[in-house]
Amino acid sequence: MHVGASEIVERIKAEAREEQERILREARAQVENRIKNAKADIEERKKRFIETERRKAAENKDRIIRAKRLDAKKFRWDVEEKAIKRALEEALKRVQHVKKEGFKGKSYPSILAGLIKDAALSITAGSERSSSELEVVLSAEDAQFVTEDMLKEVSGEAGGEVRLSEEKIKTAGGVIVRRSDGKIEVNNTFEERMKRFYPELREDIVKVLFHDRKE
Amino acid sequence: MNLRVMAVEALKEIKKAEEEARKQIEGAKEEAAGMIREAEDELKKLEAEASKDMERKAKEIADKYTKEGEEEGEAILREAKEEAEKLRAIAESRLENAVDAVLVRILGLNKQVER
To answer: Which fold has domain A94-204?
Structure first.
């Protein structure tokens, strides 16, 4: 081969080798770079994903605990509600005993007289004296505890004539007092008083049963 | 050999070298493309593995926190049940006092006392 041509051939070969190496070097670098970036990207996404999942799981855990705390409160409410119901039921049952033995040193007739007087005073306080003729309605059982003297005494204190009605009601005890024209009535039967004073009664019962637990 | 023949031979050699160089470069390009294809496959594999790994870790985390929540919740309930039992016993022992308190109000004795 001619010397010049041989040099050209060698140069072509050398350039081809260089080009080949460059192409492969660049490809290797590109591959290495892409994998490195992809791995970093995956790690970053993993970290964010795990953080999000951890937050979601922690919220779920809190939700479970909150629900159980609510259930726990329900245990206490349940005990309270049952105890309140029981105290009210027992109180109504005890009325029969009160009728026989009295309560806190007071006889049942004096208790009835107090209820009649309260009701009568409530009615006469808002009425003209002349129209304050009042009748007392009781159960047949309680009617036996009311005497003419008692009614006279209440009439004097209430400022209106109080008389016993022929009408009888069904009740565990207590009294209804109404103006003879029927326009105003105060229901002091025990069932009605229990309904009327229910919020206060609940408070009383809770206070006695559940407060000051050192007692 | 005369000059013309020598020149023709030289040109042939150069052409041959050029052809070989072209093939060599083509080969390198193909090899590079192959490397990139392999890398793409590896990336897909990495993504799939990462996805699986994340799913597994998410389940692990969810299970762990749920278990903790349930355990803590059960402890709260256990304690509340015990507390409720104590409360029930105390309430039972004080029932008569509560009945008295109810009677005082429904018999109207609180008002009578106030007066």
So the answer is: hypothetical protein PF0899 fold (3.30.2320)
